[in-house]
Amino acid sequence: MRSDVLIIGAGGAGLVAAINAHTQGAKVKVITKEYPTRSQTCMAQGGINAALGNASQDSVQAHIENTLMSARGIANEDAVRLLCESAPEAVEWLDSIGVCFSRTKDAKIAQRTLGGASAARACYAQDYTGLKILHTLYDRCNALGIEMLNERCLVNLVTKKPQKEDAYIGGATFLNIRSGEVETYEASSVIVATGGYSRIYDKHSTNSTSSTGDGLAAAIRAGARLSDMEFVQFHPTALKGSSILISESARGAGGYLLNSKGERFTNELAPRDEVARAIDMEIQKGENVFLDIRHLGEEFINSELPQERKLAKLYENIDPVYDLIPIKPVAHYTMGGIEVDEDSSTKIKGLYAVGECANHRVHGANRLGGNSLLELVVFGRQAGVNAAKYAKIFDKTIDTDEQTQSDKNLVEEVKKFTNQIDFYEKRAFIGNIFYNNAGISRNDRDLKEALCQIHQIQKELPLMGPKDKTKAYNTNLVEFIEFSNMLELCEIVIVCAINRSESRGAHYRSDIPEQNDVDYKAHTITYKEANLLYADFVE
Known about the structure:
- With 539 residues, the protein is an alpha/beta fold.
- The chain has a domain at 232-332: Flavocytochrome C3, Chain A, domain 1 (Alpha-Beta Complex), CATH 3.90.700.10.
- The protein contains 16 helices and 18 strands.
- It has helices at 12-23, 60-70, 77-85, 87-96, 129-144, 214-222, 249-252, 272-284, 298-304, 306-316, 371-393, 401-415, 423-437, 444-460, 475-499, 527-538, and strands at residues 3-8, 28-31, 48-49, 111-112, 122-123, 147-149, 152-160, 168-176, 182-192, 226-227, 232-239, 256-259, 289-292, 325-334, 337-339, 351-353, 358-359, 524-525.
- Strands 1, 2, 6, 7, 8, 9 and 16 form a seven-stranded mixed β-sheet that branches.
- Strand 7 (152-160) and strand 8 form a beta hairpin.
- Mean pLDDT is 93; it is low at 531-535.
């Protein structure tokens, strides 16, 4: 059945968009690869930024300035201003629908300081902020009767490009993981809210295994543009052995970073790119690096940082009340994404994007901690409202039969690929080469070496198909589709990184002096341009 608004992805951004599209009277359908409560939003632990006036030294203007400074000069100031000015209302709305924020003694929403902030601005719910926001949004969607379909893996977006007219969206095709069938869902407007792509770094990422950039890959194939794909933020504090995130809230509460000698070596609350590089430099010198929260005391840790204690015990077999936490920086958040305008709209009519998969140009070269949860509320509302309004005036039909059959053939063709090469081994190989050659520190030679490796793997793709040829719950097939999407994005990330011949924020080039001047140059790229640029670099 046709929907007014089809939302792909059920993390925080998708659910906020669904609620707001529904309030506009639209018939909304949400389709997601996993279950909503397992979305990446639940891993945003530290807090959501808003200048609420609780701290005398804070203001909306200070929030704007901190965001622009962290972005290293290339965020869009108008978009940043909208984000920060909307923050108090966004938090008030979350509070009104039941998010159980931690409270001060006088019952105000509690706030803490995160890296790069000039004041205690991050509103939090212990160290489970994203999870509690996500669960509340999911409850709200259920209460409103919004339809959700789980276990559908996005295959492609369905578009129509009439002569002398811009392309417009008509829906999307999915692989039903339960049945193995390719399904088509038609809609007047589509919102892509599929999350980021940092799993290209494989085990060197805090993100769930589902953060494979499916929405971005489908969008660029459909004709949308991607921008700033080279900017990948590395979180300074992930557990050394597992890459599980240890929240910035631990440093915001007063945690120290120590090397093997027990020395503090950096400002723990500097912007994330600075802290990650400082830690990486210590590691390159042969030092181990630790997070120390022992001095905060067991009572404080249990009340304010309970998840961090549980994670350290579970994954490192240490108790941070008594022990140092071994950490390393790993890929955490992707600042680039599907290029959108001030209305969250892409260049394809009726196609919107929001959340980590989108580039609203509010994060620039380095996201300010606490702004990701804020982004999904502010722009999720905007995308939902605008998609619903567009659906009301959309009066065109699109024949989806051809695309449906094409994608059915595609899935069957993939099953015919041989499996002479294990794509899981190649996935791990790519993760390692990206961490080493396109990670915290980069240079032209290493990037071009990585690009050659990616191109070779692309040529070998028909030799590494899924071993499982069955239909129902074929997770091997799903993971191959994800791998194919990541492989597509890997090339684009490296091409953009080579093409940005400057060192800025998360794109730190050891062979080029660092830049912080305000000179916004978005690196936008289409599918065709990516291939042309690749040809230039390998000649």
